Automatic annotation (TrEMBL), chain A:
The lineage of its organism: Bacteria, Pseudomonadati, Pseudomonadota, Gammaproteobacteria, Oceanospirillales. One of its GO terms (molecular function) is transmembrane transporter activity. PANTHER family: ABC TRANSPORTER PERMEASE PROTEIN, BRANCHED-CHAIN AMINO ACID TRANSPORT SYSTEM PERMEASE PROTEIN LIVH. It is a multi-pass membrane protein. Keywords: Amino-acid transport, Cell membrane, Membrane, Transmembrane, Transmembrane helix, Transport. It is found in: Cell inner membrane. GO terms for biological process: amino acid transport. Belongs to the binding-protein-dependent transport system permease family. LivHM subfamily. This is Urea ABC transporter permease subunit UrtB. One of its GO terms (cellular component) is plasma membrane. The chain crosses the membrane at residues 251-278, 285-302, 308-326, 390-407, 474-498, 504-523. InterPro entries: ABC_transp_permease, ABC_UrtB_bac, BCAA_transport_permease.
TrEMBL record, chain B:
Keywords: Cell membrane, Membrane, Transmembrane, Transmembrane helix. This is Urea ABC transporter permease subunit UrtC. It comes from Reinekea thalattae. CDD domains: TM_PBP1_LivM_like. It comes from the Bacteria. Its main location: membrane. The lineage of its organism: Bacteria, Pseudomonadati, Pseudomonadota, Gammaproteobacteria, Oceanospirillales. Pfam families: BPD_transp_2 (PF02653).
């Protein structure tokens, strides 16, 4: 601990002692209630106000913070008839007089309310007291926020309070916030050059925007060359770190976009990759899933938090059933004619879109986010991770794993793989290919429905929801190599990250164009995608 | 010379080529009547044709030309392009740029140097790719050259690496989608979201006058006829035979020594140019070109016109386009909601029940009623 800090501690201990004696003395003489003190506040002259305020501080009453803040803002009044405390508030430019305790609007004439006056000395005292009340709050987060609010501007008395409280602080997070504040103060005002530089070097670890701003000021304005150099170097360290975290942020956003692409395209990877069917209505299966989520929320408006859990199996069922109907009704007649299935399913997609438009109106619908999915995790002052994207990322991985298990470990999966490799042979061995086809298509469509649930958490739900994902989904499947689930996984995340990496350089639209052009060129070189099927199964 | 002779060498009845002459004749008669009806007969007369109908007919014929373009590649070579709206729109933008320059200082901002939307975006000068579009000849050249070049580069890349079938369809769709995203950007210098519009005149003739509109219709009708005959001739020529061979079995054709990718590339370019011509003619008649023309659904709709009319029949594709678009105009006027249902159902019904389209249906009905010489020959062999 340096000398400078010791000095503060010493003077503050004296103050504390003095205050304590005062407290003992006053409680000896007579103990006043908070109501009496408030009443006294309305009666004293400006010069005596401070002594009353000091007594109020001693009571440690819950209303103190509110009282001091109102007073500091110059909004504290009292009723001249009964000397009760009032608050003057401006609501939409209209002044309202409220009771200090109940916050109810009081029907009293403006001229009957008298302001409790404050001068500059009192303002300083009030500011220090407010800081002290906040800094000694029981709640850790309140204390931490109180310290953090001082980063931008700190006056001497509050700083002294912080230094004094640091020795008593037990919470780690609050401790480090206080240390940072002390370092910031040292970096700016410490007379000792060595200590100043040491503080600056410690600050190089911090990512707080306030620290960065302060270091910029020091680097540009300090006369002492050594200190300026230390600040410049600290700034460089911080910039490098911020650059790293920004990259991490981009990668996370890319992963998030990739997980959406994965969810949207994985159903397609089954119907297109395994069955060889071009399902242009795949996007509409996603849309159906999203609308299912919307309807579930309409049905259970008081349980939004649980609605998503209900919506997932329901969306799967709805989309899967529609998928099976499409397979039985149309696609089974078009086997081995991929271009015809493309046209027929496109027709179906138009019908489904118009159906949704007729039932739910062409306008976008808002789906609510459950409380457990909203908000974000703060990794450090530069890096935030939004919770809904994090959940969707893990959700996509779970869906992927589940699908892998179904295809590898269940009898349905075995049949699907058999039929996709050699339809005639499979039929000869007694596999009911028609049934397998219907179930496979249902599975692919059902997963699209689940994707719709996830998407409803990120965008508005509208009749064109599916269309905006269908081209991207096809790109992912083609890029990854048709019939290869791992290829789809890699392709989805690659495209997601590539998209977000280009975005800061060229903008969102151009970056998606670049990715499309890249895939078009890539397909020229490797027409079968990243991981082509090998052996006799391929063609 | 061979091509020239094959133009007039129409085959026996029962084959697609046989209906080209009557169809062209019918087209001429209809165009003539429409022209006379609009220009000669006064309003209120039974024979009067409104300017609205003239515009509508012109629009249908442009769409018919677009269907012809798709039929040439899809019907004869099996290349299902879901990106022909891109060539159409690029041709349209070429014409739109010329018309935009013709406005001169008659725009809202009265700026003779820059189109309105550039003034609005505070652009200082005309981007380099706008230079020369004051000249009709240069503009038309670019309107055809750019789509042709795009088709060449894309086709060359795709066919050389043997991208076929569904993959090719998806790639063409992605290409159109990328272009759509690009043209929606204001920075592109093509008017962004609003596109190019507010045209005044073409080659000094006002676009509002009935005469100009009738002349545009006549030109469209004439060009459609010429392209129909030329396409027929190409398909009857040796080149066309190879194209059909590629469609039926590309590997065998390649094995016989044909560089199939070259045939496909040139056919693709030819088809793109037809689509571009359709776009060029479409814009002055409709009066606007915007990025909406690039939307993937437009490209896919063209395919359904061809499928309904009958792929690989040329006239069938043209008739399909006219029929579907007429139905669209009528249906959207009566029940606006029903159109997408109807279009969707058309896709499903035609692929399931009419694999050869209406043209094929008519052919098979006729075959049943009175066996043509060709059919007799088939039975014998």
């Amino acid at each position: 601990m340096n000398r400078y800090r010791c000095h503060y501690l010493l003077s503050n201990s004296l103050k504390l002692l003095f205050g304590f004696l005062l407290f003992v003395f006053s409680s000896f003489s007579y103990s006043q209630t908070i109501a009496e003190l408030h009443h006294e506040l309305t009666n004293v002259t400006l010069s005596k106000t401070k002594s009353v305020l000091e007594k109020i501080v001693q009571t440690d009453d819950e209303t103190n913070l509110h009282l001091f803040e109102t007073m500091l803002a110059g909004n504290l009044y009292f009723d001249t008839s009964d000397h009760s405390l009032l608050v003057l508030e401006k609501v939409d430019g209209v002044e309202q007089i409220k009771d200090f305790y109940s916050a109810e609007v009081r029907a009293i004439d403006r001229s009957d309310a008298k302001k409790i006056r404050v001068n500059n000395a009192l303002r300083t005292y009030l500011r220090a007291s407010i800081a002290r009340i906040q800094l000694t709050a029981k709640d850790d987060t309140v204390r931490k926020e109180a310290v953090e609010s001082l980063y931008k501007k700190v006056d001497k008395t509050t700083f002294a309070t912080v230094v004094e409280l640091r020795s008593q602080e037990t919470n780690k997070a609050v401790q480090s916030a206080m240390d940072l504040l002390i370092d910031m103060n040292d970096a700016q005002f410490n007379k000792n050059e060595q200590q100043r530089i040491a503080a600056i070097n410690r600050l190089a670890k911090s990512l707080e925007p306030a620290v960065r701003n302060m270091l910029v000021t020091i680097a540009n304005q300090t006369e002492v060359p050594k200190v300026a150099a230390a600040a410049t170097q600290a700034l460089q360290t911080i910039e490098a770190k911020i650059g790293f975290y920004n990259k991490l942020d981009t990668v996370f956003f890319g992963l998030s976009l990739g997980s959406i692409l994965l969810l949207a395209s994985i159903g397609l990877a089954i119907t297109f990759g395994v069955m060889g069917v071009i399902n242009m209505a795949h996007g509409e299966m996603i849309m159906l899933g999203a609308y299912t989520t919307y309807v579930v929320q309409l049905l259970m408006p008081n349980h939004i938090d649980q609605s998503i859990i209900v919506a997932i199996p329901l969306a799967f069922t709805v989309s899967a059933l529609v998928g099976i109907v499409i397979e039985r009704g149309v696609i089974q007649f078009l086997h081995g004619r991929p271009l015809e299935t493309l046209l027929a399913t496109f027709g179906i997609s138009l019908i489904l879109q118009q159906l949704v438009r007729s039932i739910f109106s062409p306008l976008n619908r808002q789906v609510n986010t459950p409380s457990w999915m909203s908000g974000s995790v703060e990794i450090n002052p530069v890096l935030f991770i939004t919770l809904n994207r994090l959940y969707i990322f893990f959700f996509a991985l779970i869906v992927f794993a589940a699908l892998l298990v179904i295809l590898r470990k269940t009898s349905l999966g075995l049949n699907v793989r058999a039929v996709s490799q050699n339809r005639n042979m499979a039929r000869a061995l007694g596999i009911k290919t028609a049934r397998v086809d219907a179930l496979t298509f249902g599975l692919g469509s059902g997963i699209a429905g689940i994707a719709g649930v996830a998407l409803s958490q990120l965008t508005n739900v509208g009749p064109n929801l599916g269309q905006s994902y269908i081209i991207d989904s096809f790109m992912v499947v083609v890029f990854g190599g048709v019939g290869n689930l791992f290829g789809t996984l890699v392709a989805a995340f690659t495209l997601g990250i590539a998209n977000k990496l280009f975005e800061p350089m060229v903008g969102a639209v151009l970056s998606s164009i670049l990715v499309l052009v890249f895939i078009i060129l890539f397909i020229q070189k490797r027409p079968k995608g990243l991981f082509p099927q090998k052996g006799r199964a391929a063609e | 010379m061979k091509l020239f002779s094959s133009i007039f060498n129409f085959k026996r009845s029962g084959e697609p080529g046989a209906v080209i002459v009557p169809f062209v004749a019918l087209l001429f008669v209809v165009t003539l009547f429409a022209a006379l009806g609009n220009l000669v007969f006064p309003e209120g007369s039974v024979l009067h044709v409104s300017t609205y109908s003239i515009t509508l007919l012109g629009k249908y014929l442009c769409y018919a030309m677009l269907a012809l373009a798709v039929d040439v590649v899809w019907g004869y070579c099996g290349i299902l392009s879901l990106g022909h709206a891109a060539f159409f729109a690029l041709g349209g933008y070429g014409m739109g740029m010329y018309l935009m320059r013709q406005i001169g200082d008659r725009g809202v901002y009265g700026n003779a140097l820059l189109p309105d939307f550039m003034v609005f975006l505070n652009w200082e000068s005309l981007p380099w790719y706008w230079f020369g579009f004051d000249h009709f000849g240069f503009a038309m050249l670019m309107a055809l050259l750019v789509p042709a070049l795009l088709a060449f580069v894309f086709g060359w890349l795709a066919f050389r690496s043997r991208v076929t079938g569904v993959y090719l369809s998806i790639m063409t769709q992605a290409l159109t989608y990328a272009l759509m995203l690009a043209f929606f950007r204001n920075e592109m210098g093509f008017g962004g979201n609003n596109g190019l519009t507010d045209f005044k005149d073409i080659l000094g003739f006002s676009l509002q006058s009935d005469t100009t509109r009738v002349v545009l219709l006549a030109i469209t009708s004439l060009l459609l006829s010429l392209l129909l005959i030329l396409s027929h001739a190409i398909m009857k020529s040796r080149f066309g035979k190879v194209i059909v061979a590629v469609r039926d079995s590309e590997s065998r054709a390649r094995f016989l020594g044909y560089r199939t990718e070259r045939y496909k590339v040139w056919l693709f370019v030819y088809s793109a140019v037809i689509a571009a011509i359709a776009g060029v003619l479409y814009v002055p008649q409709i009066g606007i070109i915007n990025p909406g023309e690039f939307t993937p659904i437009n490209s896919i709709e063209i395919v359904i016109w061809v499928a309904i009319g009958g792929r690989g029949t040329l006239v069938g594709a043209v008739l399909g386009a006219l029929l579907v678009n007429y139905a669209k105009t009528r249906l959207t006027a009566i029940f606006p909601e029903a159109w997408l249902f109807a279009l969707g159902a058309l896709f499903v019904v035609v692929t399931l029940f009419l694999p050869k389209g209406l043209f094929g249906l008519a052919g098979s009905i006729r075959k049943k009623l009175l066996p043509s010489p060709a059919a007799v020959k088939e039975v014998k062999s």
